[in-house]
Fold each of these.
Amino acid sequence: MYYTLTEAREAVLRACREMQEKGLIVRTWGNVSARLSREEFLITPSGRSYDAMKAEDLVIVNTRTLKYSGKYKPSSEKNMHAMIYERRPQCGFIVHTHQQNASALSVLGEDFDLDAYSKVPSFADPAVPVVTAEERESLGPVIPCADYGLSSTKKLAKSVSKSVVKNTGAKAVLMRCHGAVLAGRDAEEAMQAAMDLEAVCAKIYEKKCGELIEREADEALEKDLPGGSFLHVRTPFVLEMSKRGKELPPYLDDMAQIAGLSVKCIEQEATAGKIQKALKDRDAVFVRNDGAICIGRNADEADAVAHVLEKNCMAANIALKKAADPVPGISARLERRFYLKKYSTLKEED
C-alpha cells in the first residue's frame, strides 16, 4: 500500500500516540514509518518527543539511497525500515516497539512456531490455546527472532532483513535483547499485530516459565530531590530480582542505555553514602527484598528508568531459568556511551 503524504503523516502520528497509550514504547524509543511510493517512505525523526511531534517534523527517506529531506534527521533505524520495504513490496507500514513481553521473551533468541502453540493450552486457562486463531491470523505462522546487533547498526538491520526474507508470512520479528518490529499492509494491520504480539508473548513466557505471571505492583514511593527525582518501585519482577541480593547485568540493550552497565544491590539499612556509591554511573539500585530505587533529573526520567528496569528484570527472570546470556559486555558499554552522548546532545538542543 502507498500513502499520500497527508495520509502518511496522519497515520504515523496516530500510531505514535497509540503506541504510547498502550505502553508499547516510552519516551522517544521505537519508531514508525509509512510507505509513500516504491522509492520513498515517511519516518519519525530521531530523538523527538512524540507528545510534541508535528506533521512537518516527519522525514521523507529514499528507500535505496537513504537520502532524506526535512528539518530533522530521520530515525537512526531508517536502514532497517528501508530493508523491510525493499524485501516486502506489499508492506505499507512499519512499527518498531520496545514492548515489555516481546522484549523480555527476545532474550531467548528463539523462533516461535505459532501453529505448534495453537495446539498447546495456555497456562492460565487450559481451555484456551497459547495462540488463538485470531492471533495466528494477525501474526502469521511464526514469530522469528533476529540475531543480536547493536541498536541502529547495519548489522541489526541486516539481521532483521534476514529474518524477514526467511519467514515470508511473519508480520512480527523479535530482535534479541532489543524489541520487536511489525510490518503490515497498513497502519491498522501493523498496530493490531503489535497488540497481538504482546498478548501472545505473555502466554508463551508463562508457558516457558511454568507459572502464571503476577502483574500487580505495589505503589511506588516518589520524592523530588535537589537536582532530580527519586522513585522506590516494587513492581513484580524488580521485587523478585531484589530478593536475589545480587548485581544484575543488562539483558536488554535499553537497560544498558538508560540505567547503566549493571544494577547493584544494597541492604535496606544502607546509609545515604552507600546508596550514592551504588548509584555511581547508574540510575537504579536494588534494595534487598524491597524492590529498587530509580533516579532521574525529573519524575518522567525516573519513571522511564523504572519502566526499563522492570522489563529487564522480566527478561532476566526467564534468562536465568533458561541459561540465556545477557547483552555482551562490550555491546552494553557501547550502548551506554552512545545513548549518553546522544541524549546529552538532545538536552542541549531542548
Amino acid sequence: MGEHSRREFLMGAAAAGLLAAQADSLFGQAAAKPAEMAIAKWSSAQPAAEAGLKNIAVKLTEQAIEALGGMKRFVSRGDVVWVKPNIGWDRTPEQAANTNPDVVATLIRMCFDAGAKTVKVGDNPCDVAEKTYHTSGIAEAARAAGAKVVFLDRTRFKEARIGGEQVKTIPVYPEIMETDLVINVPIAKHHRLAELTLCMKNYMGVIEKRNVFHQAIAPSLADLTRFLKPQLCVLDAIRILKANGPKGGKLEDVETKLTLAAGTDIVALDAWGAEVVGKKPADIPSIVKGHEYGLGKIDYRSLALRELAVS
C-alpha cells in the first residue's frame, strides 16, 4: 500500500471510528432517556396471602418509578411533597374503594430517599375522615413510612381562580397548593356519575363544593387538572372495583389485576386505566375532554412507554 493510500485508509478508519463512537453515545443516551409512562405488571403466580400482595405492591411501585428516571427526577433535596391517594371511603383495602396503602407507603419512602424534607398525606373524603383514614389502612401505612397524615380542615379551604371553561373558581385546600410536588395516586374503579375514577377524577379530593362538578363533570375535571398542572401520577390497579363505585363494598365487584402505571401524562394514564377496567378510553368523557384540552394523549402507546414484567 502506498503512503498516500495508507494515509487515506487511516483517515477513513478514524472517521468511521468517530461515527461509531458518536452512534454508541447517542444510542446510550436514548436507552438512558426516562420513560414518559411506565406500566408494571406482576408476571408470576398470584400469592394466596395478603403479605405476598404487599410485596407485589412495593415492587410494582418501585420499578414503575425507576423506569421514569427515579424519584429524584421529581423530588429535590429539602422538598415538601403531598401524596394524594383516594381515601374517600370507609372501606378496607380488599374492597378496592381506596388506593392500596402499600403503594402509598412505597411512594413516601421513595420521596424521603430522594431527599424530601417532609411528606404529607391527605384527602377530602366523602365518608368521615377518621374512619376512612383508618379503615383504608392508609393512615397507618403512611405514618409507619414517616409521613405526616393530614386531616383536611374544611374551614381552611380558600377560593381559587381556576379560570376554566366550565369552572371559574372553586375552594382549594391551600396546604396542598403550597407544596413543591403533588403525587396523584388514585385507584382505578367504577364511578356511577363519571363512569370511572382515575387520575383526573382523584383531584376532586383537593377541593370543596364538589357538587358543582356534578353538573358537567368532564369539563370540570379538565379545568381543575389544567389548573393543578400534574407532574407525577401513579394509577393503582393492583385491585380494581368493576361495579357499584365509587364506594363499592361487595367483594364480587373487585378484581385483582396486580398492575399499576406511573407517568407524567395524566390523560394517557387515564386511558390505560380505562382499558384495565374494560372500557374504551374514547367512551370516557373526562379522558376525551382532557385530550381536547391538550392535557395529554389519549393514545398512550404513542408516548415513550416502558412495559415491565415484574416478578
Amino acid sequence: MSPHIVLATSADDPAITVSDRLYADALERRGCRVTGAPWDGPREAFAGADAVVLRSTWGYFRALDDFKAWTEAMAAATRLFNSLDLVRWNLRKDYVEKLAAAGVRVPRSFVVPCDVSAIGRVFDETGWAQAVVKPASGASGHSVELLQRATLAGQVAGLADEARQAGVVVQEFLPEIAEGELSLVYFDGVFSHAIRKRPPPGEFRSNSRYKPTRTAETPPPAVTRQGAACLATLPEMPLYARVDGVVRDGVLIVIEVEVLEPALAMDFAPPSAERFAEATMIRLGETRP
C-alpha cells in the first residue's frame, strides 16, 4: 500500500507552500500519497497517516499548549517528523544555551523574564549599548526587536504579550547581519543547499515578513561542516533542519537552529526536494540507503 504522508500546515495558511510542493511531488514520484492539512484544523485529516511532517505550522506559538498537545497526539498515532523530542527541544530558544555548552559558536545570549530590571541587568553585565530581544517561544521574526540601552524602558513596555508570557532571549547583536543571514539546509545531517537572506536597508531582521532579498549561496565546505557539527549536538539527528547564522573569520556563528517548521527554500535548489524525499523514504523504511 502506498504510504500516506501528511504535510502539516496551519489554518491561517493551509495550502502547501511552493517549496514544499516540490517535496510533495518528489514523494509522489516515489509512490506516496501526499496531502496537506492544518495542525489546528480537523484531526480527521491526519487519521491513518503513515507519517506527519511538520512543514508550515506557522503561528503555533500563539496557541502553544494546543500545539504541544497536538504534536503529542500525532507522535502517539504515527511517525512525526521531526520527532517529538526535537519539537520539545526547539520550542524554547534556551536551546541556544545548550548549543553553547556543547561547544557550538553562538551569540552571547541570556534567557530572562520580560521586564526592564532583568533585561537591564543583562545590559549592565555585558556593557552592551544595544541587543536583540526575542520571545523565548516564538517564530517567524514575531516580536524580535533591537533594544537600545538609552531607551530600554520604553521599548520593553512596548514588547508583545507573547514575550511577556514566555520570557525573552537577550542576544548579542551581530553586525555581520547587515550582509545577510546564511541559512544552511540539511537532510538527515547531510548538507543540501543554502540561501542568503539580506535585510532591506535600515533593517536587521531577515524573516520573510520583513521582505529580505533571498539568493542562492554556495558556502565554503568548512562552514557547512560546522553546521553539520552543530546538528550532531542535538538530542537526535533531525530528518530536516535549517541552521541560520553569520560567518566571522571563517567561523559559523549559529543564531538559530530550526527543526520544527523551517522554510527550506527548496525552490532555490529544486534537486533538494529529491534529497528530502529520499531521506524521508529511508526513515520510513521504504528504501535502503
Amino acid sequence: MSTKNKTKTPVSELRKDLVSNTWVVVADKRSKRPHSFKKKTEKKITGKELKEEKEKCPFCHLEGKENLLTYKKKSGAWSLKVIPNDFPAFVHGTSLNVHDEGPFMVMNGVGFCEIIITRSHTRQISQMTVSEITEIVDAFQVRYLAQMNQRHIKYVSIFQNYGKEAGASLKHPHLQLIATPVVDPDIYRSLHGSRKYFEANQECVHCVMLEWERESGKRVIFENDEFVVLCPFASKIAFETRIYPKRHLAYFERSSTALKIQLAEAIGFTLARIKKKLGDPAYNFFLHTAPCDGRVYDHYHWHFEILPKISVWAGFELGTGTEICSVKPEDAAEILRKK
C-alpha cells in the first residue's frame, strides 16, 4: 500500500499574533521536556572570590560618579542610584543634523543613556521585596519623565539584560534607560498593529486578549487588583511572559503610586517563578509604552515583556523572521503557576 499521500499527525501548529498579524510556530512535540529547559546551576563562588569580584565591580564603587537620582534607606545609606552610562550609544546634543548620504538618510545619535543600580551586588530583582521593586519602578517613572520632554526625544526605552546570554556585561543588578530620537521598529510594529485593530473593531486589541485570557485562565500565571501576568497565546519563544495593567492604560509614565506598588508585586512574583522553575536563566525584560513624540496613542496598552533565553535563533528563524516556540504557552503558564 502506498503511503505517499497518507496524512500525518501534526507536530506543530501556527498561531497568529493579533497585534503584529504575524505567525509563530508552536512545535512542542520537537522539544525537550519542560523541566529540561532548566539552566544548570552555576558553581557558587567562595567568600574570597565574592570579595574580589566586588572590589572589581564599578557599580559597588560609585563614589565621585554623577548621580541623576538617589534613593536612601532610613539609615542614610543609598539603596538605588541612577547614573549616566559611561559607554553610551546616544549622547546629549542640540542638532540631529539629518542629511542624505547617497540614497541613504543619516542623523546624529542624539539621546540619553542611564543605568539604574541597586545597592546589593548579589540580590537580583527576583529576590527583592515589593517595596524594593517599587523603588525601581518609581525610578523608571521619574527618569522617564525627566527625559521624555527633552529636545529631539521620541521614545524612552526601559529594560534589563540579565545574564551573559542576554547581553549583561556585569553581574551587579542593574537596569537601563535609553532615550532616542526615533521610535524603534518593535514598538512601531506594536503601535501599528494596535491601531489597525482599533480602527477595524473600535476596541483595544490588548484589552480583547486580556478578557479572553482571564476567562480561559489557561495561560494566566498571576493576578492582583491591577495587573495580570500571562504567557501570550502566540508566544515568540518558550516561556515568554507579559505583565499587563488590567485597565486600559496607554502611558506608563502616568502611573499612580498605588499602581506602581501593584506592578512591583507582579514583577517580583514573575521573575521569582522564572528563576525557580527555569533554573535562573538569562532574560531580557523591557517596557512597551506609548511614545513621547507628541502624537496621541490612546489606542495603545502599555505592558512589560520578559523573554527568557531558553533557545537560540537558527537559520529558519533568522531567514524567515518566524519564531519557533518549543513549549506551548499554556504548558509554560502551568509550570510557572505552580509553587
